[in-house]
Q: What sequence folds into this?
């Protein structure tokens, strides 16, 4: 898992940078950080092994097994040598690789919590200048919520996802959305191409032909078709939902608040960063725009 974590090339570069947002260069006071110009000195931190992550960690193996359910018969067991078959194998392999790297980035990267220096600074300010968490009784920045699963405050928290054994928040939300996008694309691509394969054979899926070496392979392809068809349909809806929320600068907790809607481009940058070439690659880059603590509201943006 640690190896996959460092696949994101910029994560290796980040190992030479400071480990958290420094109070010396962090924005002070209320939300003055403009989206896209926030502090990016923080690099992704590995998520601590809380108890909840340990009991949900088998889900990582489940995701890998489900992935292999399609990848093995489609790529590894497929003996077709035609151009279309080879192209399809390459395309699915690329999608699966992007999906798995995004997945493990989301599993391993800490969503982000409130820095100790910020809490100390907030405690020194007059009451009413900061929010107080009702559960932890600790000061918290705007858009920070208490995660009852890991029992801590999480920056820009969306939800705790057992599938990734992690909380989805400010620093790993990009990888969660990319995981959904590439998983839905992989499932849909596999389902459509397998369906076309069966159509071209013009024979029942369990029968044999030159394009398939044995009935067992045909059966596995049929299982993959059913699996990808069902999961692909669900994932397309789920991915579309999260992409739409990212474009509106919302989370599933805030739900249609509209308070932080700064326009599609700037909203997107607060999840995917300010480097368009890296938006759809599962790499850290410069990280999400902003610092996860100070947020510009739609009203502030009009001033």
A:
């Amino acid at each position: 898992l640690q190896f996959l974590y460092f696949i994101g090339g910029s994560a290796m570069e980040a190992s030479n940078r400071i480990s958290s947002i420094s109070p010396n260069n962090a924005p002070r006071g209320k939300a003055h950080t403009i989206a896209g110009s926030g502090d990016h000195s923080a690099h992704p931190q590995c998520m601590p092994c809380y108890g909840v992550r340990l009991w949900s960690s088998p889900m990582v193996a489940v995701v890998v097994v489900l992935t292999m359910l399609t990848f093995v018969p489609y790529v590894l067991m497929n003996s077709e040598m035609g151009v279309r078959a080879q192209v399809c194998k390459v395309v699915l392999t690329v999608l699966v690789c992007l999906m798995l790297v995004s997945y493990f980035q989301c599993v391993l990267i800490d969503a982000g919590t409130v820095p100790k220096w910020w809490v100390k600074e907030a405690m020194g300010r007059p009451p009413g200048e900061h929010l107080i968490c009702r559960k932890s009784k600790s000061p918290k920045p705007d858009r920070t919520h208490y995660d009852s699963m890991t029992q801590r405050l999480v920056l820009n928290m969306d939800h705790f996802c057992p599938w990734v054994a992690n909380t989805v928040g400010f620093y790993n939300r990009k990888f969660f959305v990319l995981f959904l996008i590439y998983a839905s694309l992989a499932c849909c691509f596999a389902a459509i191409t397998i369906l076309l394969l069966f159509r071209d054979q013009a024979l029942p899926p369990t029968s044999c032909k030159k394009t398939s070496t044995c009935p067992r392979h045909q059966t596995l392809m049929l299982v993959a078709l059913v699996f990808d068809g069902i999961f692909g349909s669900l994932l397309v809806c789920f991915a579309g939902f999260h992409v739409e929320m990212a474009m509106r600068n919302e989370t599933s907790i805030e739900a249609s608040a509209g308070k932080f809607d700064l326009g599609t481009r700037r909203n997107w940058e607060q999840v995917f960063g300010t480097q368009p070439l890296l938006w759809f690659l599962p790499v850290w880059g410069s990280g999400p725009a902003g610092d996860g603590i100070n947020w510009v509201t739609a009203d502030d943006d009009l001033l």
